[in-house]
Design goal:
This protein has one domain: Myeloperoxidase, subunit C (Orthogonal Bundle), CATH 1.10.640. The chain is 28% helix and 7% strand. A two-stranded parallel sheet has the order 1-5. The radius of gyration is 22 Å and the shape is globular.
Length: 503
């Protein structure tokens, strides 16, 4: 597992002229025609905006809540932000406005498309010493409190009036949850150094990547993708490169737009309206002044009272599902279900988050997919050899158990979507039809039927994740496919968190 000194550095440690620094956006299904949703540009925009409104929970209150919720899945809430962290590790799209996204071949992904933690390590201590402590460890920021972690620290920051984080990817400071997860990665690396005296920076970096990639392969993917789909890319229980059928880069790895603009936008439906950070702090994801003057928005020094009680986000503690244990204030929160519904605050993004219309995240996703020329979900299903969902089974709304009234199908929005569902919506609707019982980690041992990505969305995500890892000669699957953490095969995100916290 040790690094070979003749190998070139990874990720942003490579200069722009390096052959490793050439990730680009491209397509999985180039032969499929783009889906259109009207006779004119105005018609397309109007129909997709209407669908975006139907996928937005405008009728729900925007207030954050902590307590049993029918929209909760069996997935602890921290996985939502692990998904966001992974996205930032894989991609960096500087041309993010709708007006600049008409041609995916013209977009350059300035991230190496690899699970190499360049969003953590930056260009390394030699080229970005201000990220580091003068040696091989990371700088940490000011102490924070409020949670259960006595060693909690903010990210290191500059001394400007608005104190920006000094980290490998500034996007990992865009909200208070992903910024604290970024901080855990810094601390995990520092503890690897402390527990392995004399280990080189390169070997510590490689070891951290192995733990991270192991969690992705054996914990994160099984949480979001139906087991029947993952079984299709395995042989005798192990991921098999020979089973990949759709993501097969001929030369350099690339980032498929079907993945980045549709399938991997699953996380938007997992976001809660807000989160209980600790005993005292319950915040919405965005402020809504004057009634809700504060929110989890970032790019600023973290409020020192906003330290996380990590047991509210990942099952490092066991508490009752309804909070009915000895301490009702400490309840494990769960991500919302994968479905065709986004919470109220995401339907009206504040101007500090998006400066151009529309303010609805659902509408923005749909318009972006159309402008990028994505094919319909049905055409992608046919191309993948999958029987497409019927229009009647493309349900729009919250995938709660026994919804009353029953969820409407996509044709109630407009007949233009007949056998012509936008790929992002299709992927989420497919998850509603592919629920899997999940025993959630609480005292009552409750089982929740949890939607997971199905044969189109799940296969796209699985193939891109595995394809990038198999094509990376520094990855776990390439260097040591049989490696597992010393604590055993059942290692998950909660074990990563415990180690970073010092447990």
């Amino acid at each position: 597992m040790s690094a070979r000194h003749g190998d070139p550095p990874r990720g942003l440690m490579s200069a722009a002229r390096s052959p490793l620094f050439d990730g680009r956006f491209g397509r999985l299904f180039r032969s499929l025609p783009p889906a259109v949703f009207g006779a004119s540009e105005a018609d397309n925009i109007a129909n997709l905006t209407k669908l975006g409104a139907a996928m937005s929970s405008d009728a729900d209150p925007a207030d954050p809540k902590d307590g049993k919720d029918d929209e909760e899945s069996g997935i602890p809430a921290l996985y939502t932000y692990l998904g966001q962290f992974i996205d930032h590790d894989l991609t960096f799209d500087p041309a993010s406005s709708l007006q600049k996204q008409n041609d995916p071949d013209a977009l350059v992904d300035f991230r190496t498309p690899a699970f190499d933690l360049d969003n953590v390590y930056g260009r390394g201590p030699s080229d970005q010493p201000y990220l580091y402590d003068g040696g091989d460890g990371f700088l940490l920021g000011d102490p924070i409190h409020g949670g259960t972690d006595p060693r909690a620290r903010d990210l290191p920051r500059n001394s400007a009036q608005v104190r920006r984080a000094l980290i490998g990817d500034p996007r990992n400071d865009e909200n208070a949850l992903v910024s604290q997860l970024q901080g855990l990665f810094l601390r995990f690396h520092n503890r690897i150094l402390a527990d392995n005296q004399g280990i080189s920076f390169e070997n510590a970096q490689s070891l951290v990547r192995f733990y991270y990639q192991y969690v992705i392969l054996h914990d994160f993917l099984p949480r979001i993708i139906h087991s029947s789909v993952l079984d299709q890319v395995k042989t005798h229980g192990r991921y098999d490169r020979g089973k990949l059928a759709f993501f097969l880069p001929k030369s350099s790895p690339f980032m498929p737009v079907e993945f980045s603009a549709a399938a991997y936008r699953l996380g938007h439906s997992m976001v809660r309206p807000g989160y209980q950070l600790n005993d005292e702090v319950l915040l919405p994801i965005f402020p809504d002044p004057p009634r809700l003057p504060e929110g989890l928005t970032g790019f600023r020094a973290l409020n020192p009272a906003w330290g996380l009680d990590w047991g509210r986000f990942i099952d490092i503690d066991i508490r009752n599902y309804d909070g009915s244990d000895a301490d009702k204030s400490k309840r494990l929160q769960f991500a919302y279900r994968l479905d065709t519904s986004l919470v109220n605050p995401l339907s009206k993004l504040p101007q500090s988050v998006v400066s151009d219309p529309p303010p609805s995240l659902a509408a923005r996703n749909l318009l972006r997919g159309w402008r990028l020329g994505l094919p319909s979900g049905q055409r992608v299903a046919h191309r993948m050899g999958v029987v497409p969902l019927t229009d009647e089974n493309i349900l729009i709304g919250k995938a709660v158990e026994n919804p009353n009234p029953a969820l409407p199908n996509i044709l109630t929005v407009s007949p233009v979507f007949r056998q012509n569902c936008p790929l992002w919506t299709y992927v989420l609707a497919e998850a509603i039809q592919h629920k899997q019982p999940v025993k959630i980690p609480v005292n009552e041992n409750i089982t929740i039927n949890t939607p997971r990505l199905g044969p189109v969305g799940g296969r796209i995500v699985a193939e891109v994740f595995l394809g990038l890892m198999f094509d990376d000669r520094h990855s776990l699957l390439t260097l040591q496919p049989n490696w597992h953490p010393p604590t055993g095969l059942e290692y998950t995100l909660k074990d990563f968190v415990r180690y970073a916290l010092g447990g």
